[in-house]
């Protein structure tokens, strides 16, 4: 950590810089003038107390002249300066200098440095839904307008692909993770293979070596206010300890000022550091990855400027939520009460640390990769794909659903309902099915809850098994939601569910690679749902069953795994939940053979194929989010990556493209003739962040006519990414009050006209198949 | 499950400027000694894992603070949540010996320790390698006066060490670890939260509308 007093030495304060950006904007596109007011929000830079210097011992020395630290942060002047970009470009080959010629209009341009045309447009339309054909033409005109205003971009397209071929003729067809400058580029890396690049910069490593630690793109720490480490993504205790002291000092130095300021982030050089103080815990994320340094934007917000959260701080929120889910807020408070020296690691299990690793990796890279701890230990090293976890994080905790026919989903809902109501039989009677032996070892079980579980006869002899059942969820093999049930008066927030689902998917990933003989275990997980009730625990019963129609019974095929999740309010209800799960399994697998085979069929083809389902193969990948239900679907990743590199690499690319697309500045730009009507368009009801909202909002605006109340705010974003191998990926976003649509396509195979046309086709398809793609209300009791 | 886990202890080293705090730490952690004096700016952080006699593994997180007064503004952050505090003096510098009491007071005020009377301190007299003639005259008597003084007495274990010749450094830190661990275990016994873990509040389904209490 070298001191970087750029703020003081630079003779152009941030304001000048603003002007510079604006010039660039004016040159490139008249449209982008409107983007400027953003700069006004900058905070004055903070000049720290020069005596607050900290010596890092043998780690390194840092004099903490906080010149480039903005205490309230969020908009950090240093980031807007193009210094990192130009440095990188100098190191880069000719290709990079070409990149510099191209220009992007948003303030984050040092990040997306090879994006040459990046234009957003917000269009207000007041006509009804039936105007889709007009939309298409309008949109196409707008898009063409935007691109026409980018002559340089078109010019660079041609020369860049030429340049790319000249520079790297050997790798012309091999795409690597260096493509598109997704990650910081280092001259010496060009010789490294993809795998060594990944293991050098990305894989989780708890290694003792300082250099291994420092080469990672991403760091995440959780520590106590006293500076005791609790969690670190990379590095051993010895490596990170100095930083713990340093972070504590920085945080408390701000705290002890007379205004009790809170430091939120630091940007210097190629790093962005975000600090979240949740006393007695401090969470810190550090990134060198360009797309993570962008500000988080909700596509939904028309007034984009109100939203200036950083991506990293949302990630820290997610981690904090995980900790709350596992140990709950009162527990944390209690442990630290009167003893700031408390070591929270005492009550976290090795599994918690694995889960934290996996969550961080998935929300950063869409994939979790670990260094093997020993050569024999290959169990945890298989990459764990978590693109859905990433997308959910990006899309404001939207949940991913499984494509199922409405009939099947309705049937599953009713199975959940009827299983809940099954009465506890008279003592003599046998349960309807008992062919699954239950293992009692419960790896998740912290605490000694097991000892408290009484036999099935415990609480009330007359009620139903499902009396304590609050929520039930059915998941497919990839932890996407098939069906769900909830009580009338309670809702689960997506933020809470996300943690539970990640937990389950990590557990499944681990067991998948252990090849355990003991089969699938029933899990009983005490979990706090901080948004539901932060003071208490719910108890999750988790069981994986295999959907297997009759004709497959005799074969060795294991069937399709499906996970039953039952959330109970009582810690004594393990055996009752187990009984309910047996009921569900019985109804899914045995009661109606025809339903079983239908379900089996549908579960075999849950991926959405653009090619097969929608017939617009020029679009390579898409994500469609229904805003009313806050759920999303995405197309098959295989279709994006087919014949073009490994899955890992393609996921890294997808993560980059979608992050950039989603977080590119989307300042509303109103057509002059309609601008007068656009004032009251902010309250568009996107706050519906629950799975299974109490009233299904989508029900009401499924059809056309209520557009007047909300205004139909459409906006689009178009970004062209130039690859080193001549492959240029176009990222396109279109969103309205009802949906957010993001897609990727190859510019060699698509024209703007088809881009619009095909995007609208997919959107229409999604709307038409809304009931197949999303869970509207689920089962309610 | 916790057999694998090492206890982490935060240890603060305090004392006047130049008594050899950094040298003690360097000798203990890296077995190195430098003749050059370099004032610590703010603080140094080092860790060392040691095994104490009952086979228990302990990680010491050592916070070496600057003795110079102008760095004292770091205060609370450094002292907060410490498990043990090492008070250092220089056997050739009488003033550093006399200042021990005020370092202790400073620490207790800043750290806001829950029961100051029981907080583990140890005292280290450094530089015993120097010539006898340079040492504080009748050191033992003066030291006794300080440690046995009824008012604000520093009745703590005393070690005489030489960071230069690595004399007594490791035994001193072993005692640090043991004392801190003892205190830690006492705390745990009086505040056993793991029992409470099961008494988590249940959410009652029938209590309509009260689910989202947050």
UniProtKB/TrEMBL annotation, chain A:
Residues 121-135 have a biased composition (Acidic residues). Residues 58-71 have a biased composition (Polar residues). It comes from the Eukaryota. The keyword Membrane applies. Its main location: membrane. Residues 468-584 form the FUZ/MON1/HPS1 second Longin domain. Residues 1-26 have a biased composition (Basic and acidic residues). Keywords: Autophagy, Endosome, Membrane, Protein transport, Transport, Vacuole. It holds the Pfam family Fuz_longin_3. GO terms for biological process: autophagy; protein targeting to vacuole; vesicle-mediated transport. GO terms for cellular component: fungal-type vacuole membrane; Mon1-Ccz1 complex; multivesicular body membrane. Residues 674-711 have a biased composition (Low complexity). It is a peripheral membrane protein. It is found in: Endosome, Multivesicular body membrane; Prevacuolar compartment membrane; Vacuole membrane. Residues 1-135, 668-711 are annotated as: Disordered. Belongs to the MON1/SAND family. Required for multiple vacuole delivery pathways including the cytoplasm to vacuole transport (Cvt), autophagy, pexophagy and endocytosis. This is Vacuolar fusion protein MON1. The lineage of its organism: Eukaryota, Fungi, Dikarya, Ascomycota, Saccharomycotina.
Automatic annotation (TrEMBL), chain B:
This is Ypt/Rab-type GTPase Ypt7p. SMART domains: RAB, RAN, RAS, RHO. Keywords: GTP-binding, Lipoprotein, Methylation, Nucleotide-binding, Prenylation. GO terms for biological process: regulation of vacuole fusion, non-autophagic. It comes from [Candida] railenensis. PANTHER family: RAB FAMILY, RAS-RELATED PROTEIN RAB-7A. GO terms for molecular function: GTP binding; GTPase activity. InterPro entries: P-loop_NTPase (IPR027417), Small_GTP-bd (IPR005225), Small_GTPase (IPR001806). Pfam families: Ras (PF00071). GO terms for cellular component: fungal-type vacuole membrane; late endosome. Belongs to the small GTPase superfamily. Rab family. PROSITE patterns: RAB, RAS, RHO.
């Amino acid at each position: 950590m070298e001191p970087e007093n750029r703020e003081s030495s630079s003779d152009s304060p941030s304001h000048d810089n603003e002007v510079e950006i604006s010039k660039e904007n004016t040159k490139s596109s008249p449209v982008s003038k409107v983007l400027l007011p953003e700069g006004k929000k900058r905070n004055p830079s903070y000049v720290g107390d020069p005596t607050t210097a900290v010596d890092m011992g043998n780690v390194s020395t840092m004099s903490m002249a906080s010149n480039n630290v903005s205490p309230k942060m969020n908009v950090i002047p240093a980031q807007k300066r193009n210094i990192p970009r130009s440095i990188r470009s100098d190191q880069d080959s000719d290709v990079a200098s070409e990149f510099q010629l191209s220009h992007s209009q948003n303030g984050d341009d040092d990040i997306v440095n090879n994006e040459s045309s990046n234009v957003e447009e917000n269009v207000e339309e007041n006509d009804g839904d039936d105007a889709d054909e007009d939309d298409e033409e309008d949109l196409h005109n707008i898009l063409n307008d935007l691109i026409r205003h980018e002559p340089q971009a078109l010019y660079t397209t041609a020369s860049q692909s030429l340049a790319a071929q000249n520079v790297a003729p050997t790798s012309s067809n091999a795409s690597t993770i260096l493509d598109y400058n997704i990650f910081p580029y280092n001259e010496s890396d060009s010789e490294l293979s993809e795998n060594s690049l990944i293991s050098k910069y990305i894989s989780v490593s708890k290694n003792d070596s300082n250099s291994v630690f420092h080469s990672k793109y991403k760091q995440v720490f959780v520590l106590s206010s006293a500076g005791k480490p609790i969690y670190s993504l990379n590095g051993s205790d010895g490596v990170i300890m100095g930083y713990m002291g340093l972070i504590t000092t920085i945080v408390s130095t701000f705290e002890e000022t007379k205004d009790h300021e809170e430091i939120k982030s630091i940007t210097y050089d190629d790093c962005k550091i975000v600090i979240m103080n949740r006393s007695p815990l401090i969470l810190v994320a550090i990134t060198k990855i360009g797309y993570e340094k962008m500000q988080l934007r909700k596509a939904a917000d028309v007034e984009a400027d109100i939203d200036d959260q950083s991506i990293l701080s949302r990630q820290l929120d997610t981690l904090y939520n995980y900790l709350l889910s596992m140990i709950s807020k009162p527990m944390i408070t209690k442990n630290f009460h009167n003893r700031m020296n408390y070591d929270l690691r005492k009550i976290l299990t090795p599994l918690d640390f694995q889960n934290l690793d996996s969550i961080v990796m998935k929300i950063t890279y869409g994939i979790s990769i670990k260094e093997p701890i020993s050569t024999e230990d290959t169990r945890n090293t298989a990459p764990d794909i978590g693109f859905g976890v990433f997308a959910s994080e990006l899309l404001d905790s939207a949940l991913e659903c499984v494509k199922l026919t409405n009939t099947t989903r309705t049937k599953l809902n009713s199975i959940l309902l009827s299983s809940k109501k099954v009465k506890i039989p008279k003592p003599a009677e046998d349960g309807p099915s008992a062919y699954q032996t239950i293992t009692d070892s419960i790896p998740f079980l912290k605490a000694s809850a097991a000892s408290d579980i009484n036999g099935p006869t415990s609480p009330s002899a007359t009620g139903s098994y499902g009396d304590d059942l609050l929520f039930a969820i059915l998941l497919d093999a990839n932890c996407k939601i098939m069906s769900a049930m909830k009580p009338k008066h309670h809702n689960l927030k997506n933020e809470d569910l996300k943690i539970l689902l990640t937990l389950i998917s990590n557990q499944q990933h681990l067991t998948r690679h252990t090849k355990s003989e003991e089969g699938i275990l029933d899990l009983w997980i005490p979990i706090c749902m901080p948004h539901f009730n932060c003071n208490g625990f719910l108890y999750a019963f988790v069981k994986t069953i295999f959907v297997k129609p009759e004709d497959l019974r005799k074969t060795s095929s294991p069937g399709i795994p499906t996970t039953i999740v039952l959330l109970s309010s009582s810690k004594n209800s393990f055996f009752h939940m187990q009984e309910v799960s047996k009921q569900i399994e019985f109804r899914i697998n045995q009661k109606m053979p025809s339903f079983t085979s239908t379900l089996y069929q549908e579960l075999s083809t849950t991926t959405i194929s653009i090619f097969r389902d929608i017939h617009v193969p020029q679009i390579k990948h898409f994500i469609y989010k229904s805003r009313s239900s806050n759920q999303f679907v995405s197309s098959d990743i295989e279709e994006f990556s087919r014949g073009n590199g490994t899955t890992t690499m393609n996921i890294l690319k997808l993560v980059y493209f979608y992050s950039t697309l989603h977080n590119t500045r989307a300042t509303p730009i109103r057509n002059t003739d309609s601008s007068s009507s656009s004032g009251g368009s902010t309250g568009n009801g996107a706050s519906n962040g629950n799975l299974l909202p109490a009233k299904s909002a989508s029900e009401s605006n499924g059809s056309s006519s209520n557009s007047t109340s909300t205004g139909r705010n459409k906006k689009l974003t178009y970004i062209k990414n130039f690859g080193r191998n001549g492959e240029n990926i176009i990222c396109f976003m279109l969103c309205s009050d009802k949906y957010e649509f993001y897609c990727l396509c190859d510019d060699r195979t698509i024209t703007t006209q088809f881009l619009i046309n095909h995007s609208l086709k997919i959107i229409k398809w999604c709307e038409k198949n809304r009931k197949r793609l999303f869970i509207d209300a689920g089962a309610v009791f | 499950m916790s057999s694998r886990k090492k206890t982490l202890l935060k240890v603060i080293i305090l004392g006047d400027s130049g008594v050899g705090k950094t040298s003690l730490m360097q000798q203990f952690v890296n077995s190195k000694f430098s003749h050059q004096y370099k004032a610590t700016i703010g603080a140094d952080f080092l860790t060392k894992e040691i095994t104490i006699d009952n086979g228990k593994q302990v990680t010491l997180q050592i916070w070496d603070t600057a003795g110079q007064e102008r760095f004292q503004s770091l205060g609370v952050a450094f002292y907060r949540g410490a498990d043990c505090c090492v008070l250092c003096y220089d056997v050739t510098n009488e003033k550093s010996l006399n200042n021990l009491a005020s370092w202790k007071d400073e620490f207790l005020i800043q750290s806001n320790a829950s029961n100051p009377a029981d907080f583990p301190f140890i005292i280290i007299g450094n530089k015993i390698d120097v010539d006898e003639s340079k040492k504080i005259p009748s050191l033992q008597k003066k030291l006794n006066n300080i440690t046995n003084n009824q008012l604000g007495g520093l009745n703590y274990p005393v070690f005489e060490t030489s960071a230069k010749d690595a004399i007594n450094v490791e035994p001193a830190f072993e005692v640090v670890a043991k004392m801190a661990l003892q205190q830690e275990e006492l705390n745990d016994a009086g505040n056993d939260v793991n029992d409470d873990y099961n008494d988590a509040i249940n959410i009652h389904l029938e209590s309509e509308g009260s689910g989202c209490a947050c």
